[in-house]
C-alpha cells in the first residue's frame, strides 16, 4: 500500500521499520517521505552493504544551504530513529548525535498583508495543469490554497482529505485523526463550498468516496513536496520575496488566526470566551498552543496589545511556537 518505491540496500529494512511503527499506532506519513529521501541518499552514494558508517551519516546530517535548523533537525531525528532500529535488529549503524534535533529554534512567523494575499491568489489562479505530472493543478490549487488560508487547517489535514470527509451540503470538512488523534469539524465558506462542488463535478465524476479530494492524480494525494514547490512558484510570480527563513506555507495558518483575533478584538468580543472556539477549530490540545496567536496578534498590531495584555499578561510575553504543529 506504500506509495513509495525504495531502491537502496536498506529497502527491505525501511519497509519493515515503517510497518513496525504503524503497527505500534504511529501514522508515519511525513516520516515515510523522509525515509524515501534517506533511501535515495543511500542509493545515490552507492552504499554497498547494510551498514551506516559515520561518514555516510554525517553526509546526511550536514546542514544544507538555506535550510532552517528545524528542517535539519527533522532530517537528523528520522535518521537517528532508523539507525537505532537497525542496531536493534543487529545491523551496524552509526547513530548521529541529537545536536540540533533537541535545540529550540525561534521562527518569526510571516503575517501576509492584504496586498500579498491578493497577489498570491492572483498567481494561483493562473495555474496551468501539466498532464504528465499535475493533470489537475489548474483546477485544484486555487481551491486548495484558499481553503488552507480561510480555514486555518494544517497542510496534511487538507491534502489528505477524502471525498467522504467533505460535506458539501452543510459546508464543512471533517478532519479525521488529526494531531493528538482527534477528529473535528472545520466549516468552509459558502463561496468555497461552491468551488468544491464545481471541482468535484470536474475531476471526480467516476471517483469513489474514498478518493482524495485534492488528488495529484487518481489514487494519489498531493505530496508535501508538490504543495511546497507550487507555493514557491506562486510566491515568485506574486513578487513576494522568499528566503530560507520564509514566508512558509504554514504562515497561512498564522495569518488566518491573527486576522480572526484582530476581527474579534475590533468587534469588542471577549477573547477569553472566543478562544475555546479557535482552539477547537485549529485542533489544539491545550490553551498554550492557541495562546501563541495572541502573542503574534499583539506583535503585528501594537494598538490592540494593551487590551490583549490586560486579559493575558503572562501569555503575551512567554508563549513559543513549535512549527511542526502545522504539518
Overview of the structural elements:
This protein folds into 3 domains: 11-102; 115-238, Intergrase catalytic core (hpI Integrase, Chain A, Orthogonal Bundle); 251-325. Helix content is 52%, strand content 5%. The chain has 14 helices and 5 strands. It has a 3-stranded antiparallel sheet. Strand 1 (166-167) and strand 2 (172-175) form a beta hairpin. Residues 101-105 and 314-327 have low confidence and may be disordered.
List the helices and strands and how they pair.
Layout lengths: L10 H13 L6 H15 L9 H8 L7 H20 L25 H11 L12 H15 L3 H5 L6 E2 L4 E4 L8 E4 L2 H14 L11 E3 L2 E2 L2 H15 L12 H16 L4 H12 L4 H14 L4 H7 L1 H6 L9
Antiparallel strand pairs: 1-2, 2-3, 4-5
Helix pairs in contact: 5-9, 6-8, 6-10, 10-12, 11-12, 12-13
**Overall mean pLDDT score?**
84
Distance between the termini: 22 Å
Number of strands: 5
- Strand numbers in spatial order across the main sheet: 1-2-3
Uncertain spans: 101-105, 314-327
Q: Summarize the main sheet.
A: 3 strands, antiparallel
Query: In angstroms, what is the radius of gyration?
Result: 21 Å
Q: CATH superfamily name of the largest domain? A: Intergrase catalytic core
Percentage of β-strand residues? under 5%
Number of helical segments with 4 or more residues: 14
Which architecture of the largest domain per CATH? Orthogonal Bundle
Q: Structural class of the secondary elements?
A: mainly alpha
Question: Quaternary status of these chains?
Answer: single chain
Helix content: 40-55%
CATH top level label of the largest domain: Mainly Alpha
Task: Tell the overall outline.
Answer: globular
CATH fold description of the largest domain: hpI Integrase, Chain A
- How many separate domains? 3
